[in-house]
Structure formats: C-alpha cells, structure tokens
Amino acid sequence: MMFTVWAPAADRVRVRVDGIDHEMTATEGGWWRAEVTGSDYAFLLGDDERPLPDPRSLRQPHGVHEASRVYDHSEFTWTDHAWTGRQLPGAVIYELHLGTFTEDGTFDAAIERLGHLVDLGVTHVELLPVNSFDGVAGWGYDGVLWAAVHEPYGGPDGLKRFVDACHARGLAVVLDVVYNHLGPSGAYLDRFGPYFAGRTDWGAGLNLDGAGSDEVRRYVLDNALGWLRDFHVDGLRLDAVHALVDKRATHLLEELAVEVEALSTTLGRPLPLIAESDLNDPKLVTSRDGGGYGLDAQWSDDLHHALHVRLTGETTGYYPDFAAPDALAKTLREVFFHAGTWSSFRERTHGRPVDTRVLPGHRFLAYLQDHDQIGNRAAGDRLSATVPAGLLACGAAVVFCSPYTPMLFMGEEWAANTPWQFFASFPDPELAEAVRTGRRREFSRHGWVAGDVPDPMDPATVARSRLDWSEPGRDGHREMLALYRTLIRLRRDRPELADPRLAGLVVETAADGSWLVLHRGALRLACNFAPDPATVPLAGTPGEVLASWGEARFAGSSALLPGHSFVLTAPA
C-alpha cells in the first residue's frame, strides 16, 4: 500500500512498517511517499530514531505514542443503506459521554441502552469526542489523533457498529469534534510541519492562516468529512469555535460549511454543523448569502445561564448578570442576553443581537444541563443534587416548550443522583500531578475548598461519574423520566411547541421573575419558580391540561399554581 505523510521541512523521512525501515520519496507540496506492504507503521523524521504515529492515523491499537495501524473502511459491512438521516429542525438531542454512559464504557455496551433513548423520544445522539487521547479514561477533549477512534471504547469498528445500530433504531448521531487545540500528551503534529500557531486556553492552537496553513486547513476539513462519509455520522458539534483564530477572507468555518453541504448533497442526507461559541454572534448561523458562515446551529449558553440562576439562585462566576428578573424572559425572546450589552464577567460589552425576524429558533440549542455546566463545577454536581424536583420539572418544561432545539445530558431525564466529574488518566506522573494541582488551584480561586475537589486521576472519580441504570425505576426518578417522555412526545405531537419562529414570541413574567408564562400558539406554559403558591395569568381560558408538575387549579383565565410547579394547557 502507499504510505504518505506531510513533512515539508524534513530532509529525510522513513516509514517503519512492521519493524522494518523504508526510505520515503519527497514529492510536491512537502509530501513524502513510499509503497510498502504491512500493517503497523510509524514515521521517522530526519535522523531521529524516535518513531512517530501518523498524524492522519485511523487506528492506534496501543495508544497515542505508539505505531499506527492500517485500517480499511471498506471491510466493515453496513446495514443502514435505507437511512436518509434526520433534519435538525424538530430534533431533540441527547448528549452522552461514551465512557460513563454504561458500566463497561464501550460502544457495544451503549448499543444495549439505545432502546431507552428510543422510548424517551430523542432523535439525535450527540457523542462527546471519541478520538484517541492518552490514557484510558477522559472526557475526550484532550485528543491528539483526530481520525483514530479511542481503542478502549471499541476502536473504529466499534463506532461504526454504534452508528449502524442507531440508524436501525431511527436515531441520528452527532459527533463532538475538537479543532481548536490538541491535548498535552501525544501531540506530535509540530514535529511534522507548521501545524501550530499561538495558544488557546487549553493548549497550542492551529495555524489556520499563516505560512503553510493550506495543508493544516485541509487536515481539519478532511477529518470532518471523514467522520461524516466513512463513519456515517450524521452531523458534527464543533467545540469552542471562538478559539479558532483565522484571519483569512474565507473563515475555516465557512469553508467547512461549503464542503459539508456538498457532501450532504452527494450522500442524500442532512449533515448539520453545530457550533459551540462564546461570541454570542449570530453570524455563525446566518446563511452565506446573508453574509454569515452558514452553520446550522449553535449552543445558547445564555439561556442555560438564565435558567440556572432562576432555579438555583447562584450568582457567582459568570452568573451575576443573569440574576436580573427579566433575564429568562429576555433570552427566551431574543436568544442572547448579552447582545451588544455590558457583561460584568468580561468587564466589557459583549455579543450582537439576533434578528429574530429572519433567524429561526431551531438554529440555537437550549439545555438545562450539559457536560460543561456539570463537569466544570468543582464537585461535578448535577442540578438534581441541590434543586427540588418541582424546579427541575419547570426547567425541563421551559426547554422543551421553547422555540429552540432542545438538548439534554445523559441521566438528566431521570434526575440522576450520580455526579459527572472531571477525570483524566494520563500515564505520565508529572503531567497527572500538574492536572491534579491545576484543577484544585483553579477552583480554590472561586472559593471552593481544595479538599472538596475530586482527584481527576483517581479511578474512583470515573466510577462515581457512571450512570446508575437502576435509578430510572426508583421512586423520584421514575416520575421525572415519565415527565421527560411526556414533554418530548408533546413537542412531537403538538406543532405549536416545535414552531421555531421567534418573531412575536410572547413571554410574560412577574416583576421579580418568580413566575413565567410562555405562549406557544394557543398553548400556555405557566411556571411558578417560587416556593409559595402563585396566581398566574394565562391570557385565555384553559381547557385540557397537557402536562404538569403539581396540581394546578383554574379560575377564569388564571391558574393557581403550587410552589415549584408548572402546567401546560390547551384552550377550551
């Protein structure tokens, strides 16, 4: 077979195949080639005798520091030939971490739980990153070989079995990918060429616009297309795109959107691109003919923050601005709370308004919890650890009755008691200690006691973070799961709830923010966030109760709601 590698500055490159070294030939554009028969291979640059894995490796059976292995996509037998995909409008997304979704933490074990997701009613499964990182356990955001599937999860065939099984059950798969940085262990890209330029909060950033950046950009684009084409993945979640520094006239994200659109046309199924961004900039999801990048959706952290403060009362860190009584109503109507307005956390103005006349709500993801907002708390505690069940129910009702694309984090649907904590397993003891002490130092600055921060390197931290699948059948959890199933079913059955139009969206709220009424066509969602009963105007005579938490009573066009409760009504 033909082995190739891009190493533009090297004066000599060898490929070690099954233990035997072979000289490679320099070709145009800094590429080197050699035709050799074999399976396990690594590259040696110059006279350095240290073999390095292939930057474009498809399989790393012995970890990110060792030899790569040849992998042939054509050898897998797919059964999803009739699959035509799932569009993002009308979707319900379920975010999960493969390693802690089940006790075994493998693709095959996750397949055994897909029936739960089908019964729940979700349409898309969003996997946290599954590419290769150093160690056995980790969140996945320290990946260093972007095209190789993490071997402890089941490797490339394991991912394909999972995607194939999802498609057989009508579930689309969105894969979280990280292009803004590489992990701290096993990142050898800079040995091969000018891959890096500058730094992000998490490590070296990619060279997207400097000398030699054409091949670096191609590296990203080919990786993205490979997941969608070769692994049959249905969409990508793009991690922290605000950290992609690109000053070219055509931004990498726009270039990616163009190429994915072409692939979508070829494959005949939708391939949505969903960005995580701290910019509060609607340009990301504005069409290209409208001057935007043309991505399909982006996460809406502002709505999460407004909901979190309303439910918990927490006002530390980046939450203080969201303590405003109208914060939740404002974000429901306008998407961003910070939209060219002052951000006290950043100590500057931030964001740009969304033109709700032209941008639909399905381009923004709404969520009560996600992996970041749980796992980046010192103890990794979920809302269910501190928030009463009634308030959890109110938060879920707001998310699923909103005009946005709803997303939930694994276990949220049954108010899981298990935390989801930060964990890693770097074999290098110095790196492990640096991560451990850095984590404690970070949280001590925010008022946490260092001793209360779980050791991210302790296997017990991973064990605590695994879902307990006995919980859904227990009292307290069973009722929450039933509510989530009802809300998701209603969103599917009642077109008013999935209506993505933002212009003219009516949200009423108490002066102190203690109650809220969301108008969805003729339907009314009334939430009482306060512990005491409240009389809430419905602007119409209620008829059928579609969903509720707590027993509401009605008088004319008002509802008397118990504390920490909601009701969703249809007109008489």
Structure characterization notes:
26% of the residues lie in helices and 22% in strands. α11 runs parallel beside α14 (477-493). The longest helix is centred in the middle third of the chain and has 18 residues, at 213-230. The chain is elongated, with a radius of gyration of 25 Å.
Average pLDDT metric: 96
**Which percent band covers the strand fraction?**
15-25%
Please count the beta strands (DSSP E, at least 2 residues each): 29
Q: What's the gyration radius in Å?
A: 25 Å
Provide the low-confidence segments as ranges.
none
Shape: elongated
Q: Count the DSSP helices.
A: 15
Structural class: alpha/beta
Give the helix proportion (percent range).
Answer: 25-40%
Question: Main β-sheet: number of strands, strand sense, barrel status?
Answer: 8 strands, parallel, barrel
What is the straight-line distance between the termini? 71 Å
Strand order of the largest sheet: 8-9-12-15-16-17-20-21
Quickly describe the structure.
This protein is of the alpha/beta class. The chain contains 15 helices and 29 strands.
Task: Kindly list the characteristics that best describe this protein.
572 residues, 8-stranded parallel beta barrel, alpha/beta
